[in-house]
Amino acid sequence: MTSMLVPLFTAPVIEFRELAPVLILFAAAIVGVLVDAFLLRDWRRWRDEIQMGLLIGSTVAALVYVVLNARKGLSGPLAMGSLMLDGPTYVAWGALLVFGLLAVLVFRERRVNGGVTVFASAASSVPGSVEEAEADRVRLEQTEVYPLALFALTGMLVFVAANDLLTLFVALEVFSLPLYLLCGMARRRRLLSQEASLKYFLLGAFSSGIFLFGVALLYAFAGSFRLGDIAAAVTAPQYGRGLLYAGLVLLVVGLLFKVGVVPFHNWTPDVYVGAPTPVTGFMAICTKLAAVLATLRVLYVALGGERWSWQPMLAVLAVLTMALGAVAGLTQRDVKRMLAYSSIAHAGFLLTAVVGASQDAARTPTSVSAILFYLIAYGFATVGAFGLVTMVRNEAGEDNSFAAWSGLAKKNPWIAGLMSLFLLSFAGIPLTAGFIGKWTVFAAAWRGGYSWLVVVAVLLSLVAAYFYLRLIVVMFGGEPARNSFVSEASGWTWVPVLIGAAATVWLGVLPDSVLSVASGLGTFLR
Amino acid sequence: MNPENMLMLAAILFAIGGMGVMLRRNALVAFMCVELMLNAANLALVAAALMHGRLDGQVASFFVMVVAAAEVVVGLAIIVTIYRTRRTTSVDDANLLNL
Q1: Contact in structure between A377 and A510 (CB atoms under 8 Å)
Q2: Smallest Cβ distance to B41: which of A206, A216, A273?
Q3: Which of A336, A351, A337, A341 is nearest to A291 (CA)?
């Protein structure tokens, strides 16, 4: 009888080759922490270069492994079924690595900021104190930001591939905790930054508590954490459906908080404004991508049999999200805050395809491939737009008010032109990536039988287009602002911005290259 | 003991924690309420493991404890920094961003 209580221990099978992208990032993050702690005196001034080398090296190596494994066609459950390597995982891993790398390159920008990074010289010092002044004077730097970003990226990779609810929870925390810290590390306006960090942390912890209770209830319902076992329990329930419905709602609330869907969006504008702009850019695309993909996997793989109960619920939330994002965006006078409401609106557009749940692989685009394409299109524009936001400044630092952006085209037509390109892509104007993204997402929702939702979404995307166009009009038509200027940036900002711009145009003019890849890899393995 | 009663107790604890996060003004107390929610989930996991006669629910509760400990490290760092800056941890006073 002891065998029932203490099952024989069998060593788990770990597929190192398939898991290489995750392991490489994780190892690089740990080495980064050690480098920061133990590097000897003479070497300390190279800290920054070593960290950046680790970061670029590990992301590129991980990316190479993703591509090689995908070409080799490796797929299936990994690490005893905790992770699932399938088409959407490959696309999401590739996209997360590319966007993560591009967004983190901006972390190192110094030129735009008068020779220092945007991060506090000593984040633990009290703003305005002697310690802070001293840290500024000796030019201390918090190079911990790079390992933190790597940990967050590792968590996201695991999050999108997680095939059981416990892995999903742990990955959620692994990518959230570093982000809470990164938000509070701005060099200027530190009170705002710390406040954003506190708000993000408290609401994030609250939502992960809700998420975890949902996990516990679904486990009580199904007797297993595996998504596949839960799907089996949904069709042949052993316990009452009350547990299932309660668990489903709580779990989805926790996930939608990360996506930033109304009514769980309250943190988005404050955190986007308070966090250092490069961190905002990183969060805006990578968190959203990871959260949307994980939501999709949970809903389609584990709870696909219950879709008649979650589809109407999410349809209502999609309408509310699009409406609030579009309408509240109209009243904003701050570029970062406007982009925050824009991200809320985009969460709503993405949700339409989630609701559509069009999964017939013969009739592309399926919901999954449409959402992947949308996120890739949105990601390039987001990376570029937040890179440009760092360049418009006044004497005190970054100036995000519309007043400062007024007449920007007369000062620097390049910046204004590139920003307009990204804004047009957000708005979904033809010949930009955003248009194709919107089209595929709405097509997937339409195929799923939610034509009314598509009509509402198209109308609301017109409303949203207005506030993007308003900023373009301000930049090109307004009187040039007196007290703001465009600061010279180095390659650390320009490379991500230009890659973002090139990809936005390329995906808009020739979407087939990526769309066909996303369509071919658009089905979850179960 | 009937595991369903334990699930009920877990739900009650979870609700108390949830109300606490929304009603209490002190960031530390709100954070403690989050911990209460996590512990309620732990209780639910253990009860469910008993219901199904499986061990993975109990193992999961260890994972949750470790994650909760990591969350405390990050959370206290943030709350203490805020306190040193403003001499208060009331979430009502953190209102600079409501533009």
Answers
A1: no
A2: A216
A3: A351
At B54, give phi and psi (nearest 5°): -120, 160
Report CA-CA distances (Å) from A292 to A208, A256, A260, A287, B51: 15, 8, 10, 8, 32
Q: B13 Cβ partners below 8 Å, 6+ apart? A: B36, B37, B39, B40, B43
d(CA A212, CA A190): 32
Spatial separation of the C-alpha atoms in residues A97 and A67, rounded to whole Å: 11
Dist CA A392 CA A352 (whole Å): 35
Query: Could you tell me the end-to-end alpha-carbon distance of chain A, in angstroms, rounded to an integer?
Result: 34
**CB A476 within 8 Å of CB A410:** no
Q: How many CA atoms lie within 13 A of A337 on its CB side?
A: 18
Residues 36-65, chain B, touching A (beta carbon < 8 A): 37-38, 40-42, 44-45, 47-48, 51-52, 54-57, 60, 63-64
ipTM > 0.90, yes or no: yes
Q: Which residue has the tokens 């010289």?
A: A121
Residue A99 C-alpha from the chain's centroid: 9
Contact B64 A169 (CB under 8 A): yes
Rounded to whole angstroms, the Cα distance separating A422 from A500 reads 8
Residue A30: pLDDT over 50? yes
pTM: 0.94
Q: Which residues lie closer than 8 Å to B21 by C-beta, 6 or more apart?
A: A202, A206, A209, B30, B33, B34, B37
Residue showing tokens 């800290």: A47
What is the C-alpha to C-alpha distance for residues A347 and A156, in angstroms, rounded to an integer?
A: 18
In angstroms, how far is CA A122 from the centroid of its own chain? Answer: 27
Averaged pLDDT of chain A: 92
Q: How confident is the model at residue A241 (pLDDT cuts 50, 70, 90)?
A: confident
